[in-house]
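Task: sequence design from structure.
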């Protein structure tokens, strides 16, 4: 992930990345054990999304796709806030919601409903003509399998819009735990992650549907043991804090020696591995390959070459290093097996 693709108040430490189920459990923990009112979380989420939309997409009408669950509630709060600030808005209600939805606090927003059986055959074509921003509040993190027909139609309509799409928490159709996409999925330009980015938005194929991810704080309490076991995302800020600082006068043998046992049919694999090792801080890198050494030496001249076809040279390279990386371009043939035997002898 590029440094600029994930933003939020968490850049100086490892970002936690819960699955959809872990996030739902933490919601319940916050509400039941810490006394955080559920409406407060929804209010904070919707307003944070509205603030981002105002900052990043300040012009034009905002149309929200509204589902029946909490994700739809977040979208309605977002629309209410934008309307209060003078922004033209409209809600396209796909899930079943009451006319006087309590999250609207008495506001009545322009709405088009696709939440009844009578509306199943209505076309969504043209709903987003002239719209400045589309907000995806359809399904959120809890989807399993492909979206149902009416939701799939709404997703396709959003993807066909010329306006940028802002997804709330997770693009609809993306599994918040695995990143799997079973059917239609919203292709967002911006994903507003509530609390933390969900794991499914950080792994492919789900990552490809999220665009820029911005994590926002919505009032969750400290989690402690409730967050144990969550995945963590390594950010540039975390790496800067935790990578050891090298003494400018340090000798190359004092900061780690690596031997790479590589194949020759795909010499680029050895080149990429050697470059990565140097960038990660290795002081000395040996590349062991049977032939075509020139391809590696020319691309990474600071690496040392050892002939993997010479068992003695290979053993010497292995004994002289702190770590061994086996496999880049190595393949599965007899030569690869012989090199492995020499390494483990």
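Answer:
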């Amino acid at each position: 992930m590029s440094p600029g693709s994930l933003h939020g108040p968490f850049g100086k430490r490892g970002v936690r990345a819960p699955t959809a189920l872990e996030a739902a459990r933490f919601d319940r923990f916050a509400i039941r054990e810490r006394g955080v009112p559920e409406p407060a979380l929804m209010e904070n989420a919707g307003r944070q999304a509205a603030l981002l939309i105002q900052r990043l997409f300040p012009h034009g009408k905002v149309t929200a796709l509204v589902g029946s669950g909490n994700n739809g509630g977040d979208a309605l709060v977002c629309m209410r806030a934008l309307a209060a600030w003078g922004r033209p808005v409209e809600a396209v209600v796909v899930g079943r919601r009451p006319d006087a939805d309590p999250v609207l606090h008495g506001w009545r927003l322009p709405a088009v409903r696709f939440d009844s059986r009578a509306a199943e055959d209505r076309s969504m074509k043209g709903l987003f003509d002239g719209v400045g921003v589309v907000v995806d509040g359809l399904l959120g993190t809890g989807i399993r399998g492909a979206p149902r027909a009416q939701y799939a139609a709404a997703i396709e309509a959003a993807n066909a819009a010329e306006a940028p799409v802002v997804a709330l928490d997770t693009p609809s159709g993306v599994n918040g735990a695995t990143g799997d996409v079973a059917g239609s999925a919203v292709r967002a330009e911006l994903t507003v992650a509530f609390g933390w980015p969900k794991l499914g938005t950080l792994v492919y194929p789900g990552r490809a549907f999220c665009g820029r991810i911005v994590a926002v704080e919505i009032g969750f309490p400290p989690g402690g043991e409730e967050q144990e076991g969550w995945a963590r995302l390594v950010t540039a800020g975390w790496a800067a804090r935790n990578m050891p600082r090298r003494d400018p006068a340090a000798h190359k043998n004092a900061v780690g020696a690596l031997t790479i046992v590589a194949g020759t049919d795909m010499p680029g694999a050895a080149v990429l591995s050697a470059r990565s090792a140097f960038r990660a801080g290795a002081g000395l890198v040996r590349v062991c390959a049977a032939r075509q050494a020139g391809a590696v030496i020319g691309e990474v001249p600071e690496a040392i070459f050892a002939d993997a076809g010479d068992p003695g040279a290979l053993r010497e390279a292995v004994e002289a290093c702190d770590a061994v990386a086996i496999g880049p371009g190595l393949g599965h043939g007899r030569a690869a097996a012989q090199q492995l035997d020499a390494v483990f002898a």
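The chain has two domains: 3-239, 252-344.
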